[in-house]
Amino acid sequence: MNQPPIKKAFDCIAHKREVQMQIYEEIKDFTVEEQIAYFQQAEETGPLAAWCKSVRQAQAQSSPGQTDWLDRETLTVIAIPNELVSAVRELIAKYRARSSSHNGAMRYGT
């Protein structure tokens, strides 16, 4: 079934490239130290300043027995117990090992 092409009101990739080019033009003659200062200032005063501050605060408040994860839907930091993180990583490793030993074929219940 042929569908007509979708006309986008906003092209995210084109916008990203435009912003990247603007930043490049601003900092292309900067030293490494000046580039670092540029991005630090952007973090403190830019449009994502409040979010960056909340992430830093959450990291400062997490306990040593937790790992911070970013919830990509809500852009909030979630503290997860390290035991759970370790268990999930172990399961992923077992799944990958099992999948690779079967030449990519998926087997359930084994």
Structural class: mainly alpha
Q: What do the pLDDT scores average to? A: 79
Radius of gyration: 22 Å
| Element-by-element helix/strand order | HHHEEH
The low-pLDDT segments are none
- Measured by DSSP, the beta-strand proportion falls in 5-15%
| Number of extended strands | 2
| Most strands sheet | 2 strands, antiparallel
The helicity comes to: 55-70%
Explain briefly what this protein structure is.
57% of the residues lie in helices and 11% in strands. With 110 residues, the chain is mainly alpha-helical.
Would you mind describing this structure in some detail?
With 110 residues, this protein is mainly alpha-helical. Helix content is 57%, strand content 11%. The model has no long low-confidence stretch (mean pLDDT 79).
Q: What tags apply to this protein structure?
A:
single chain; extended; mainly alpha; 4 helices; 110 residues; two-stranded antiparallel sheet
Write the layout of secondary structure elements.
Blueprint: H1 12-27, H2 32-45, H3 49-61, E1 66-71, E2 76-81, H4 82-101
Antiparallel strand pairs: 1-2
